[in-house]
Design a protein that fits this description.
The chain is an all-alpha fold. The protein has helices at residues 2-11, 14-36, 43-62, 76-80, 83-92, 99-130, 136-147, 151-159, 163-191, 196-206, 209-219, 224-255. Helix 7 packs parallel to helix 9 (163-191). It is globular. The termini are far apart.
Amino acid sequence: MISETLVRVLESNTLIVAFAVVGALVWFSYFLSAKLTRGKLHGSAIAIVGGLLLAYYGGIRTDGAMGLADIPLFAGLGIMGGAMFRDFAIIATAYGVRFEELKKAGLIGAISVIIGVVVSFSVGAIVAFSFGYRDAVAISTIGAGAATYIVGPVTGTALGADSSVIALSVAAGLVKSVLVMVATPLVAGRVGLDSPNSAMIYGGLMGTTSGVAAGLAATDPKLVPYGAMTATFYTGVGCLLAPSLLFLIVRMVLEN
């Protein structure tokens, strides 16, 4: 009786449950990171993998398409993981930036964003082509996903891509995000990633806000807002270029 009452209360406050579940997952992931890897594998990377496994479990159990959000008790995860909270979290990272340091990036920071988007898109497009895709829409969507898992769905939706192709673009972006999380603290010393200026350039080149933020947090938490700032610009530039100019270039190349 008590358990049934508790379930009813929780199901009527699903957003609170979502925050509690995500908070517990993040805490446990950072615990595993500290105890098992001594911080070498960042807690955010473990949390993403754990979230994907839970989403897979939810989809298998309910034959649904939204992961754990298909289970009534965890329906709040669908809201928490939606665009509103995502964009709020991305914008919030910019509040730790000192404007004086931001200006120092200048033209180099802007160029790094353009280079990062074009290179990531090109690599994704080449991989898609090598796996047999010959449709400009599919190639552009997967290429955009290689930029970030946000740019991929935006591009796919704008171009009318198949849902399976959009899913592949999200998967490509998630793989990139996890790789950046893990690799950043390992290569930081070798690439001179030790100042706000270098963090902004790095964020512009890599682009994945979650990956850059987690990687920089494991390197030097003070660098996180700067890398996240240009990574956020990267996402915006990717959403602008991928379904327009870059798509037209891909179509032109395929037609020739």
